[in-house]
Specification:
It contains 19 helices and 16 strands. It is α/β, with parallel strands linked by helices. The chain folds into 2 domains: 3-230, Rossmann fold (3-Layer(aba) Sandwich); 241-405, Rossmann fold (3-Layer(aba) Sandwich). The longest helix has 15 residues, at 73-87. It starts with a helix and ends with a strand. It binds adenosine monophosphate. The site of adenosine monophosphate has 18 residues, from helix 4.
């Protein structure tokens, strides 16, 4: 497995999956210019979601793909779409794309656009982006000029339709990406409005990390006799991670963090904050307490990030403070502690974060600070992982800190639904591009990207998470 892992390590991408689905891209029957692009990208083999989805998609079947970002799901839909457009080329009609890809956020949409451009670089296929937060003029002009593939967020898409810059009655293929997140973000009505404008005769590729009842209902309404494929979500080694939550006032967090870092036998601690600004602040506060730490986040230059990582890796700096997006590039063995200084607002991020410890058979500790405003996040996380994270006290008191980092007590469930062990499968690396979105402060979001304030809906949506049929393990890390 190790050598296989190494074989797939290319341009910072790490692939780890069970030794199955080992067919090649040419076995999938993809057009030569696409194979060329894939080989230039050094993609050696399709990931499980790709090898399962592509044949159905090429056979014009509707597909439900249960997979998260990081599994290679973008290529799973982009490759067969490009193949079809390459085999059935047509001059794009004004305002009438042939393919519509809907995604919940600007970042994800931009990444999808890049993927189409990368895999389709030797084709004549045209692709454009319609997302909020930027002027509409360029998007309108691109659509009027005619485009094969449109990647869009729902709000802007509807604005373009209403502004008569876009028609949806010639769509041949619809992709709905991250359907569960679309619902969480309150896009259900927009999606239904959009789907109502599409031709009934079309192919629909529907991707979701989870299949809660609302997502199933949407899929039922949108898809026609779909094939169902699934890969595991971000598997963790949760059973080897001692998880604790410490309820603390926001103002008490710096002191608590300093106490933990001083009082614990920590080799390497990865501290997570929700925002870049927050990460810098934590580093400054630790500095005032005489504790050296480095921050890595999107505002740091590549050099700064690499220096910080190197210092963390070789033990010169024991504490690295990171945002979710920055952390996706961190592949450091020997992280003994993950500390969630802020709880993530996206529950899956919790799983990604704590998966940074307890690697390679080691045991790890995950401590989460939870202030009054974060309780709803905590509830959503507990619902997702299927266990109540044991709580210990606030800042003062070594005893409580010791408890917080003690091993899992008897009686604590072994692992949540989220764990690989719960499924009898190997843990796979987690991570993925979608964290870019999670990292943003709410005020940075475009209006159509703004998450629904209705946490209850989100909670409901998450309820039956990860109950889909699990076919295989597959995770990539960018
Ligand atoms: P995604 O799940 O689509 O966000 O993909 C995650 C990352 O995996 C991206 O950086 C892709 O470029 C990369 N990737 C996708 N498919 C493959 C593959 N078959 N081999 C290697 N890397 C891949």
């Amino acid at each position: 497995m190790r050598s296989r892992r190494r074989a797939f390590r290319s341009r910072g991408r790490i692939v780890a999956w069970k030794e199955q689905n080992l067919n090649s891209f040419s076995d999938l029957g993809l057009a030569a210019p696409i194979l060329r692009a894939l080989s230039e990208e050094r993609y050696e083999q399709p990931t499980p979601i790709q090898s399962q989805t592509v044949p159905y998609a090429l056979a014009h079947r509707d597909v439900i793909g249960i997979a998260q970002t990081g599994t290679g799901k973008t290529a799973a839909f982009a490759l067969p779409i490009l193949h079809r457009l390459a085999n059935q080329p047509r001059t794009p009609e004004r305002k009438s794309p042939r393919v519509l890809v809907l995604s919940p956020t600007r970042e994800l949409s931009s990444q999808i656009l890049d993927s189409f451009r990368t895999y389709g670089r030797h084709l004549k296929t045209s692709v454009t982006l319609a997302i909020g937060g930027v002027p509409m003029g360029r998007q309108v002009r691109a659509l009027i000029g005619g485009v094969d593939i449109l990647v869009a967020t729902p709000g802007r898409l509807l604005d373009l339709v209403q502004g008569n810059a876009l028609r949806l009655d010639r769509i041949e293929i619809l992709v709905l990406d991250e359907a569960d997140r679309m619902l969480d973000m309150g896009f259900i009505r927009d999606i239904r409005k959009i789907v109502a404008k599409l031709p009934k005769q079309r192919q629909t590729l529907f991707f979701s990390a989870t299949m809660a009842p609302e997502v199933e209902a949407l899929a039922r309404d949108m898809l026609n006799d779909p094939a169902r494929v699934a890969v595991t979500p971000a598997a963790t080694t949760a059973e080897r991670i001692a998880q604790r939550v410490m309820h603390v006032e926001r103002a008490g967090k710096p002191t608590l963090l300093a106490e933990i870092l001083r009082g614990e036998p920590i080799d390497r601690a990865l501290v997570f904050t929700r925002t870049k600004h927050g990460a810098d602040k934590v580093v400054r506060q630790l500095g005032k307490s005489g504790l050296a730490a480095e921050a890595i986040h999107g505002n740091k230059s590549q050099n700064q990030r690499e220096r910080a990582l190197a210092a963390f890796r070789d033990g010169r700096v024991r504490t690295l403070v990171a945002t979710d997006i920055a952390a996706r590039g961190i592949d450091v063995e020997g992280v003994t502690h993950v500390i969630n200084y802020d709880l993530p607002n996206i529950p899956e991020s919790y799983v990604h974060r704590i998966g940074r410890t307890a690697r390679a058979g080691a045991e790890g500790v995950a401590i989460s600070f939870c202030d009054a405003e974060e309780r709803a996040y905590l509830r959503a996380i507990e619902r997702l992982i299927g266990l109540a994270i044991p709580a210990t006290g606030g800042p003062a008191g070594g005893e409580r800190l010791a408890q917080a980092t003690a091993q899992r007590p008897k009686g604590q469930p072994r692992a949540g639904r989220h764990s690989a062990a719960a499924r009898g499968q190997n843990g796979a690396r987690s991570g993925g591009k979608h964290k870019a979105r999670q990292d943003r402060a709410p005020q940075d979001r475009a209006p159509q990207d703004r998450p629904s304030r209705d946490r209850a809906r989100q909670d409901r949506g998450r309820k039956n998470s990860y109950n889909g049929t699990i076919a295989s393990v597959g995770f990539l890390q960018s």
